[in-house]
């Protein structure tokens, strides 16, 4: 079965809108990738300041291929120099990130 890769992004309250806007404008960057199955950006409702970037893939290999290829396009402009600098990139909205990996062992959908 599939594998799930969740990127956990720590986002200060005043940066939430910036983060969501950036994802909204880049969602297309992953959709056409081989083995890509699902993406969700999960906004925390309570108890944490961490957003979950949920992605599901046919295999670990498909995920690794995306990471070493078009992942870079999805992440252009997300880190580096200060906003407005010539040649610089906008400051990240997230202050930290951690990657979680899972394999799907059971699943169900509505009948
Ligand atoms: C599970 C796979 C993913 C990994 C390992 C990953 C990695 C990262 C990392 C390390 C950051 C924070 C550093 C930075 O801002 O450059 C980040 C932020 C971001 N990622 Fe991803 N990402 C993943 C999935 C995705 C997907 C599928 C998309 C597009 C739909 C995406 C779009 C973005 C955007 C827009 C940011 C916002 C940066 C910000 O303003 O803070 N990421 N990602």
Could you explain how this protein is built, in words?
Residues 78-87 have a biased composition (Gly residues). Residues 3-94 form the ABM domain. Its EC number is 1.14.-.-. It is an enzyme of class 1 (oxidoreductase). The protein is an alpha+beta fold. The chain has a single domain (3-103), classed as Alpha-Beta Plaits, CATH 3.30.70.100. The chain contains four helices and four strands; from the N terminus they run βααββααβ. Strands 2-3-1-4 form a four-stranded antiparallel β-sheet. The chain starts with a strand and ends in an 8-residue tail after the last strand. 10% of the residues are buried. The structure holds protoporphyrin IX containing FE (HEM). Protoporphyrin IX containing FE is lined by residues 5, 7, 9, 19, 22-23, 26-27, 29-30, 39, 53, 55, 74-75, 78-79, 92-94, 97, 99.
Keywords:
4 strands; 28% strand; Alpha-Beta Plaits; 111 residues; binds protoporphyrin IX containing FE; globular; 4 helices; 4-stranded antiparallel sheet; alpha+beta; EC 1.14.-.-; 25% helix
